[in-house]
Amino acid sequence: MSELRLPPGPVDLRGLPSDATPGFTGDKADGQEALAALGPELADLQERLFAEGTTGSHRRVLLLLQGMDTSGKGGVLRHTVGLIDPQGVRITSFKAPTEEERQHHFLWRIKRALPEPGIVGVFDRSHYEDVLIGRVRGLAEPRTIESRYGQINDFEAELARDGVVLVKCMLHVSADTQKERLAERLANPEKHWKFNPGDIDERALWPDYRAAYEAALERTNTEIAPWYVIPADRKWYRNLAVGWLLRDALHGMNPQWPRADFDVEAQQRRLEQEEPVS
Amino acid sequence: MSELRLPPGPVDLRGLPSDATPGFTGDKADGQEALAALGPELADLQERLFAEGTTGSHRRVLLLLQGMDTSGKGGVLRHTVGLIDPQGVRITSFKAPTEEERQHHFLWRIKRALPEPGIVGVFDRSHYEDVLIGRVRGLAEPRTIESRYGQINDFEAELARDGVVLVKCMLHVSADTQKERLAERLANPEKHWKFNPGDIDERALWPDYRAAYEAALERTNTEIAPWYVIPADRKWYRNLAVGWLLRDALHGMNPQWPRADFDVEAQQRRLEQEEPVS
């Protein structure tokens, strides 16, 4: 889905569609069907990667999800990541850093959460929070924030050298869509637990968050770890588009079933000729 | 599914069916459909439990899977556990203990892997390995092994007091089914990576493993943490039966959506009356 790839250069999020469905002409029902149809392909590719990981390969995937509140990171986890075998997935949700985490470099907790070889790691928020809320809320000195973009690029380049295929997705919703989704949460008692009055306070900072996203996207949109901006006003398209990107990443890795490191026919004979077991 | 609950007293695994389908009269296709139909109910219950966990409740589920090689622990993870939102699941696969783990009490690594409140934890193998392979392979002194049954019961009672609902499943396959499944792995190059010549050596110890399972099942089949023995020769039934048990456990907990701890109407007004955002 190269159409979703953010071109290099300055980023203007208001100029990027949040309600389009690039690469797909069907409606919601078609989109949900297309996602379900991706399931077997994703499952096959993921299992191959997992198998490869048992034989010394360092290759793995890291799907990184960023986006404003209600942009649907949880929905992608449930509907898209949920298509693949949970044994092969490692999800980490990054909250506000703990006391211990704050005493370390901002990448410390990130490095501890990297997927093992053969695994599809998923970050629900990530080190980008340290140049997003970190910048908007002034959680560090401006020059510290400033230094982080380069540190992130160095870190991601290092990951790529170590076999990590990074898929960085920004789930792009409009402020109006966020407002609708917050209103839905308030209207449905089964969703009250997802709402926090602070969510409305954060909306007042929307332009600041937008600017922080624009800076982060521009400065970390590297050749080796590009950004994808996913129109996310339509949940079904958002889920499908991330599915495509995950499929493309796995497909590009072309993981292979490991060859047997034993004599298959000899083992077949052993099994045939064993003493009765019960 | 009380039919699957192991009755108290001595256990004779050869007398327990491995190819039956208790509680279900349909065929494979019906069983797969029934499992898929469980999905929404499981997802709803799991999300309620998760929501409850955000409000101070300590309740969680621990699904514990044991069984001989090829009994299908991985299949249950993929097909049954895979039905629920991966954000609410924590799977731990216990391998042979590491150097560090061997230097600690056998429950040390288990305690570190317990699910957080609101989470469905899944153990693929567990502390029971320490009275199964531990006994068969003589990995500890007989009196040490002997002491573990009581320690396990004490530990599980403590978990129950701390809000953990334990679902202990023994996936029961016959030796013949295992042989067929090993032969399938050998016949299919895509499955060679799952095969190890040592798997055939282990089969020679089948009666010892059976005796170890029988002792473990009998001695840890407590009121508060009973065992379920799942006929597992038919993969579809095994997946469905574990789904039922998970559903029953969650249903019995009756998790409730948390009530809003804020004034819903006041927040609705705030959202309505906010300054335009973009």
Short description:
Two copies of one chain form a homodimer. Chain A is α/β, with parallel strands linked by helices.
Structure description:
Chains A, B: This is Polyphosphate kinase 2 family protein. Chains A, B: One of its GO terms (molecular function) is polyphosphate kinase activity. 2 copies of one chain form a homodimer. Chain A has 278 residues and is an alpha/beta fold. Chain A has a single domain (2-273), classed as P-loop containing nucleotide triphosphate hydrolases (Rossmann fold), CATH 3.40.50.300. Chain A contains 11 helices and 5 strands. Chain A has helices at residues 28-53, 73-79, 99-102, 108-112, 133-136, 142-161, 175-187, 198-203, 206-219, 235-253, 264-273; strands spanning 60-67, 89-93, 120-124, 164-172, 227-231. The longest helix of chain A is centred in the N-terminal third of the chain and has 26 residues, at 28-53. Chain A is globular and about 75 Å long. At the A-B interface, helix 2, strand 2, helix 7 and helix 11 of A face helix 2, strand 2, helix 7 and helix 11 of B.
Globular, elongated, flat, extended or rod-shaped: what is the shape of chain A?
Answer: globular
Going by CATH, what is the homologous superfamily of chain A?
A: P-loop containing nucleotide triphosphate hydrolases
Structural class of chain A: alpha/beta
Proportion of residues in β-strands of chain A? 5-15%
Largest interface: A-B, 50 and 49 residues
Distance between the termini of chain A: 54 Å
- Which series of helices and strands of chain A comes N to C? HEHEHHEHHEHHHEHH
CATH class of chain A: Alpha Beta
What is the count of distinct domains of chain A?
Answer: 1
Query: How large is the radius of gyration of chain A?
Result: 21 Å
- State mean pLDDT of chain A (0 to 100 scale): 97
- Strand order, sheet with most strands of chain A: 2-3-1-4-5
Using the 3D structure, state the CATH architecture of chain A: 3-Layer(aba) Sandwich
Low-confidence segments of chain A, given as residue ranges, are none
Helix content of chain A: 40-55%
Number of helices of chain A: 11
The biggest beta sheet of chain A reads:
5 strands, parallel
CATH T-level fold name of chain A: Rossmann fold
GO biological process, one term (chains A, B): polyphosphate metabolic process
Keywords (chains A, B): Kinase, Transferase
Domain Polyphosphate kinase-2-related (chains A, B): 27-255
Protein name (chains A, B): Polyphosphate kinase 2 family protein
